[in-house]
Structures are given as C-alpha cells and as structure tokens.
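Working notes for the structural subgroup meeting. M.R. asked for a predicted model of this chain before we commit to crystallization trials. I am recording the input and output together here so anyone reviewing the notebook later can reproduce the run.

Input as submitted:
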Amino acid sequence: MTGFNPPRTTVDWLSTAIGLAAAAHAGQVDGQGKPFILHPLGVMRRLAEKGYDLELQICGVLHDTLEDTWVTYELLKQIGFSKRITDTVLRLSRNADNCNYEMYIELICTMPDAMIVKLADLEDNLDPARYSPVVDGLREKYEKAAKRLIAAATPNWGGLLSSLNQPKSST
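Returned structure, recorded in token form:
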C-alpha cells in the first residue's frame, strides 16, 4: 500500500484496527439505531476485561468487517495484520460456504481464537443494555451457539453460561 507506514507495536495495530473498523462501519446502525461500531468496540472491551491479548482484541474489533463491509481478507493481509488476526477474522465471517448458522458455529469450534471472539460477540449481543435479541427472536439462537462454544472454550466464560441457564423473564 503506497504511503502506508505499518504500525510498530501491538498497541499501534489496535489503533489501526479501530480506525479501519470505524471507517468500514461508518453509517451503519444497530437494531436500536445506535452506531454499529459500538458493537465491535464492545466485543473488544469484553475481551480486554477478560484479560485476552491485544491480538484477540483486534480480532474483536474487526470481527464483522469481512461479513458486513467493503473490507476484504486480502486488504487485512495487505495492511499487514498478523496471520493469527487475519485467519481468525476470516473464520468469524459467514459466507456462502458456511451460511447455515449451525455449520458456521461448528467451523468456529475448530479454532480456539475464533471461539473466544465469538463468545465475546454473543455476550455483547445478549446484553440487554446494548440490544434486546428477545424482540428479534434471536436469544435462543445466540444462547444455543454460546452453549456449544462454551463447551470447548476457556473457563472465563462461566458467567455467561450461568446467565444462559437462568429462567427467562416474561418481559
């Protein structure tokens, strides 16, 4: 890329990822009309709070870019993101080959880094403060996926599993 100076530190890569995600998601809004970029930033924050490294946080902020924007796998590689980041973001992206949601979750289960980021994504999607998936009928789908991923992922997600096993409110 002409005129692009690659970041020198992992923190610089995080800044680059945030800038790319913000540009790629510009103008997109979530189901409540809030800027969509708040979701990838929320996923990144959840990963940071659980103590995951900056590369996984970068994956968190980029996790929806290949699926929902003009960003491509080739662009991520061209920018210079690590193989770990580009491969994880690719695995987290639904496409024609994995369009069935259950198949998509099973593919994620084959890559530990993708499982961790997807769990943070689901945790953010299930957070009533951000969005109400119950209204959209997505809660059961997200809960089923989270339970499948938790079975194969790190114990840091026990709190989410506990909340998934709580009785549903009737609101």
